Amino acid sequence: MHILLLHISGKETERTLTREALSEELQVALRDLRPVFTPKQMITLLPRGESIIANLLHVKLIITPLQVYIFQSKSRKIQEEFLPVIRNAVHADAEHSCFHFRMLDAALTYALQTMAQLFRPLEEQAEQILHSLSSAASETDLNQLLLIKKKLQKISTTITVAEELLEETLESPDTLEALTLTPDTTADEPELTSILENAFEQIEQLSHEIEDITESIDDTQEILTLQLSARRNTIIRIDLLISLLSGIFAFLAVIVGLYGVNLKNHLETSPLAFALLSMGLFMCFVLALLGGVYYLKRKRIL
Fold first, then answer.
1. What ranges do the domains of the chain cover?
2. How far apart are the first and last CA of the chain?
3. Does domain 2-229 have CATH number 3.30.200.20?
4. Rg for the chain, CA atoms, rounded
5. Please, which of 35, 100, 106, 165 could form a disulfide with 55 given CB 3.0 to 4.6 Å?
6. Residues 287, 243: contact at Cβ < 8 Å?
7. Are 215 and 263 in contact, with CB atoms under 8 Å apart?
8. Residue 50 · residue 181 · CB < 8 Å
9. Distance (Å, rounded) from C-alpha 202 to C-alpha 260?
10. With DSSP H G I counted as helix, E B as strand and the rest as coil, what are the percentages for the chain, rounded to 5?
């Protein structure tokens, strides 16, 4: 694998190393190198011997007291975004901070910034859609909101893993001692704790922001679901009334049709036949309508 080796002096060396060669060089087990050699590994911060094996999103590196091994250094994202950050950290506050702490701090800061950059556009899109949905609901906005929610869930999963990792590290004195990589852990451990605490606070804040926007999306979806259900119920009720009216008119049309056949029934000569038939049909219509409405309300359909 292609590796960029960045020395404490700022000197950079490009090397191609196999897992076996790197394991022998750093005196670590092969299985401990999985986070930096195997794709799609969980976020990792692993102290082994005199090195820290770190997998922070797409940034994979091994930090030692004198140099840092940067993996996948040929990728565009690493070249354009991460390498400038790590190069600036080489000489930043070199008199008061250990080299490996500066590298770890720079890597954690960059990983947090990357997660925030993934979250901010989604947050803006969600807020715009939620604002538009408050005035008028549309199927397109709902579909976009669902897609945003899925993306937020992926980011939230990654952040939760990182948050748990940092919390477990801070609560474990043995892990903190191993991460110092120096014999004088009493002097160096406070600096390491400060770096990890700062990263934990930032990732916790980001986690809360994601929870807030996710809750807003869930609340909006519930409200819209209730509104849509109410509209569907209204449409169903109107459809039932129309069907009831259609049935009544169809029944009355049958009666009218019987009286319209060309057969003598002795009513065509009566001056009251039309009026009586019209009144009878009207009464039948009213009674059928009232009876149908009463039945539907009794069954709690209307």
1. 2-229, 231-298
2. 71
3. no
4. 37
5. 35
6. no
7. no
8. yes
9. 86
10. 70, 10, 20
